[in-house]
Amino acid sequence: MDQFEDKRINEALELLNAAARDKKTELQAVMEKKYTDLSSVVSAFANQMKIRATEKFEAGKQKVVDIATGVDKSVHKNPWAYVGGAAAAGLVLGFLLGRSRRD
């Protein structure tokens, strides 16, 4: 290779490097804009999900309180049925757990 060809190759490489630097800057700007857009969308979605989760939690909590109040009233109206049911459940559970495992 002669010196003229080396010079042309170096000029071509410099031109390619300059173009790559320009495109790199342009690409970084586009990516930053897209990232900002994506970040705002994800943030809005996360806030919306947090609000929905809070609403569902509050509704579930109220439902549990309502059921517990209903069971409490039912037990106060007819306590012996619940005492008998608890005794029967304890008897069955004791029978199942107390069985001999030796066969």
Shape: elongated
Task: Give the low-pLDDT segments.
Answer: none
* H/E element order: HH
State the oligomer. single chain
Count structural domains.
1
> Average pLDDT, to the nearest integer?
87
Please bin the fraction of helical residues. over 70%
Q: State the separation between the terminal residues, measured CA to CA.
A: 95 Å
Instruction: Tally the helices.
Output: 2
Largest sheet: none
- Rg is 37 Å
**% residues in beta strands:** under 5%
Based on helices, strands and strand pairing, what is the structural class?
A: mainly alpha
- Strand tally, please? 0
Describe it for me?
With 103 residues, the protein is mostly helical. It has one domain (3-78). The protein has 2 helices and no strands. It has helices at 3-77, 79-98. The longest helix is centred in the middle third of the chain and has 75 residues, at 3-77. It is elongated and about 110 Å long.
Observed structural traits:
103 residues; mainly alpha
